[in-house]
Write a sequence for this structure.
């Protein structure tokens, strides 16, 4: 298996044009049909679940009303926000560490064949080790210290992020790098004005994948080795045999992640891609 | 008088990755550009014109010999370069594209507005390059090259990707900039008309390894008119050399 990819040919400018870009706004009907389709799925899921709960009549499959009551209980408890904040802080620290390492290693791999060969095994091993293994190993190695969840998150998300940045680096326009060399851009300017904007799509793609892995691992780490955070709270509900509580935590965690995805990540992505929209108008 | 750009006994070869054959593009090639001189290099595709420009720009190293001159080598290097494509950072405004070159050259970024005014793009300073036409984008590239007060301006087929009328307008703009302030320049072009209009000297390159097979001195004062019969006669002779 190899990480080598073919870099796409750089775009060439067309004389007296420059309005190439994605097609203009889709029809107004699509604007409503998209959310309506997603809402339909959620209604079907909730309805299907409730139907299954009624049919089975088991404490192992609580009804939507029971899960809803648990959700209300959790959100009115200040401890919920404390646990959420603790988990969020651990993910943020681990992800920041992974991001810094991935930017450095990913760009080095894209620029130097020697660096690619050196780091390739590390990335491949990192991609294939299950998050559960990282969670267990970090609990064993680091115990209950903060470094445990931070390292587990960093180790599980860095390989995917590195691979994404490496591929983005390979696709960076070599002509712009030549221009930066001729005009003697400083290292800081190259990173800020050339590399990061060029890598933005890869960074956001990698961040999404990395974060999705990080959320899964942090919950495992908190279940196995921590006394606070969302994972520890879910473990508490599990120990109390409160299935509705486990599901309520899961639902709320998913909602918070969705808010982060659409509110924060997509907002940043729109901001970074502002110039594309201007070009398309 | 010290030379502005000097290639001393330069050698450059490439090895084909397909059949491992080595092509000697230059062997013991020497060239001198005097201060205030714009030299045009013309020749068939593959003669090594762009390779030569890339060696002066520091994008490629000669295998043997050296490239020297004030503003070309080492820490003193200050080059303005206009490529075939504008090579702008599409995510920065037009002004920011010029500012970053100024800052990199240790100059005041506020000079960007004056540079854009010189190429007729003052009102586009806050736009993104992607909303400009191809000709306007190439004007930004010209503004960037001249804004930094370059020791040498390198022009690598700068207008070949543009349509005839736009290319003509930009050639006249370039001549205007050159007339206002004499600079040292190397122009690589496939267009004999462009070469004789802009350059003080036209060198015809041919062969492998490449050598200068003909040299023309263009002693006509600037600004020159593209329809000038003397230019046209010179152009005809360059074309005859190339055919």
């Amino acid at each position: 298996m190899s990480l080598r990819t073919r870099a796409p040919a750089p775009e060439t400018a067309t004389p007296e044009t420059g309005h190439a870009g994605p097609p203009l706004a889709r029809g107004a009907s699509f604007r409503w049909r998209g959310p309506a389709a997603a809402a339909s799925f959620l209604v079907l899921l909730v309805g299907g679940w409730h139907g299954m709960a009624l049919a089975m009549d088991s404490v192992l499959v609580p009804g939507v009303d029971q899960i809803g009551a648990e959700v209300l209980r959790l959100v009115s408890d200040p401890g919920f926000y404390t646990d959420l904040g603790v988990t969020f802080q651990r993910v943020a620290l681990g992800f920041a560490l992974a991001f810094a390492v991935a930017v450095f290693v990913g760009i080095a791999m894209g620029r130097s064949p020697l660096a690619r060969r050196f780091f390739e095994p590390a990335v491949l091993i990192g991609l294939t080790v299950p998050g559960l293994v990282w969670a267990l190993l970090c609990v064993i190695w680091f115990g209950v210290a903060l470094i445990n969840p931070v390292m587990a998150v960093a180790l599980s998300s860095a390989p995917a992020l590195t691979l994404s940045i490496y591929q983005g680096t390979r696709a960076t326009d070599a002509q712009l790098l030549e221009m930066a060399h001729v005009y003697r851009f400083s290292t800081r300017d190259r990173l800020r004005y050339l590399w990061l904007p060029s890598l933005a799509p890869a960074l956001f793609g990698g961040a999404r994948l990395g974060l999705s892995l990080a959320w899964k691992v942090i919950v495992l780490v908190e279940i196995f080795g921590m006394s606070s955070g969302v994972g520890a709270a879910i473990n508490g509900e599990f120990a109390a045999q409160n299935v509705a509580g486990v599901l309520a935590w899961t639902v709320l965690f998913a909602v918070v992640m969705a808010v982060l995805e659409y509110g924060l990540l997509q907002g940043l992505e729109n901001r970074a891609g502002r110039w594309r929209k201007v070009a398309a108008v | 008088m010290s030379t502005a750009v000097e290639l001393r006994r330069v050698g450059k070869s490439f090895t084909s990755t397909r059949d491992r054959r080595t092509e000697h593009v230059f062997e013991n090639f020497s060239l001198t550009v005097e201060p205030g001189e714009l030299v045009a290099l013309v020749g068939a595709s593959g003669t090594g014109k762009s390779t030569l420009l890339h060696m002066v720009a520091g994008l490629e190293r000669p295998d043997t010999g050296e490239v020297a001159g004030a503003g070309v080598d080492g820490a003193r290097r200050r080059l303005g370069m206009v490529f075939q494509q504008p090579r702008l950072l599409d995510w920065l405004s037009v002004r920011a594209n010029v500012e970053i070159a100024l800052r990199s050259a240790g100059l005041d970024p506020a000079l960007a507005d004056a540079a854009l005014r010189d190429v007729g793009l003052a009102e586009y300073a806050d736009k993104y390059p992607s909303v400009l036409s191809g000709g306007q984008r190439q004007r930004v590239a010209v503004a960037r090259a001249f804004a930094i007060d370059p020791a040498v301006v390198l022009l690598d087929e700068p207008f070949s990707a543009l349509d005839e009328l736009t290319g003509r307008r930009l050639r006249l703009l370039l001549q205007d900039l050159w007339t206002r302030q004499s600079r040292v320049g190397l122009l690589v072009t496939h267009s004999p008309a462009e070469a004789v209009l802009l350059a003080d000297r036209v060198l015809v390159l041919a062969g492998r390894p490449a050598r200068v097979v003909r040299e023309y001195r263009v002693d006509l004062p600037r600004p020159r008119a593209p329809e000038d019969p003397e230019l046209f006669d010179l152009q005809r002779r360059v074309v005859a050399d190339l055919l």
